[in-house]
Amino acid sequence: MLDSLSTAVVELDEQGCVLHMNAAAEHCLAIGRERAHGNLFSAFERIPEILTDAIAATAAEQRGRHVRECELAGGWFDCTIQPLPSQHMLLEFYDLRWQLQQSKLQQREVQTGMMDLLRRNLGHEIRNPLGGIRGAAQMMAAELNGRELGTLAELIMREVDRIDELLARFGQPELECSPADIHFVLQETTELLRLESAESVKIIHDYDPSIPGISLDATAIRQLLLNLLLNAFQAGASEIKIRTRVDYDSAMLQPGCGSALRLDIQDNGCGVPESLRSMLFLPMVTGRRDGTGLGLALAQQIAAAHNGLLSYAPLDTGSRFTLRLPLERYHG
After folding, report:
1. What H or E segment, with its residue span, contains residue 117?
2. Which of 21, 35, 65, 240 lies in disulfide reach of 25, CB 3.0 to 4.6 Å?
3. Is residue 80 in a domain?
4. Exposed/middle/buried for 122, CB within 10 Å: 0-12, 13-18, 19+?
5. Interior angle at CA 204, CA 229 and CA 312, nearest 5
6. For position 48, which CATH number holds?
7. pLDDT of residue 331
8. Secondary structure letter of residue 125 according to DSSP
9. Do 324 and 182 share a domain, yes or no?
10. What CATH number corresponds to the domain at position 303?
11. How is the beta sheet containing 8-12 ordered, strand by strand?
12. Residue 173 belongs to some domain of the structure
């Protein structure tokens, strides 16, 4: 019966060794029951100190405790610790994947909403005056054709066009979706990265060949992926790993949509400063002096236009960006 529960359940003996655990606990702790049985729970991989301290305090005081947001080998979990007779202990782990993804989806709505607001304000406050500046510069260039001041007027026109193009990038993506092989899109993107970067970067491909062709805007997704790969390169990464899988349990999935494409881009670069992580997908947020602060905001906008989600996770060394796109939406 315990194996039918989605909640991970572990019973410890008086020494803190595993007596029983269900199937969900195997995922939670990333260890099989046979291997875990009789071994000290605190010695398992990635058991946080806050959890072992709470288990010890519960054993000493014989009073239940609740530990929030523990990062274990299988992800993030809330844990309830209850004392049992004979100094045994019952641990229950509640998977937080859904809550964390729901939170990220809510953040996505705020991020894309801010992009839309910024686009409208920029269009009104900047693009209209730019038109007047360009028109005046065009008249000067025609009047001063071939002279030094005429060259400067042409420079003004080019710079105005560059700013106008930059502002146009704030627009909501208008997708032109068609069936595509995501791995072919990834191949094109990695080739573009090699053309963009003079230095060699090792790229590791870990693809799931069973992923079906999906309907997407290949140009927009290529732009999103290239942005992530360039960010990794500019963060000093010497190795980038690209991984694709099918995710069958995601909070972003709508009713009737049974699976999602999960695409991870992981690098060993310098990572994202902690002060920027909570604002990473907002416009005008950048950790580089020469950065525009638009790349990740636009990437999130492209993901949202596909009913997807782009998220970030810090690693011990480097970063991992994850793109999720609902697969069932594209079947047909």
Report:
1. helix 97-122
2. 21
3. yes
4. middle
5. 45
6. 3.30.450.20
7. 39
8. I
9. yes
10. 3.30.565.10
11. 18-21, 8-12, 89-95, 75-83, 65-72
12. no
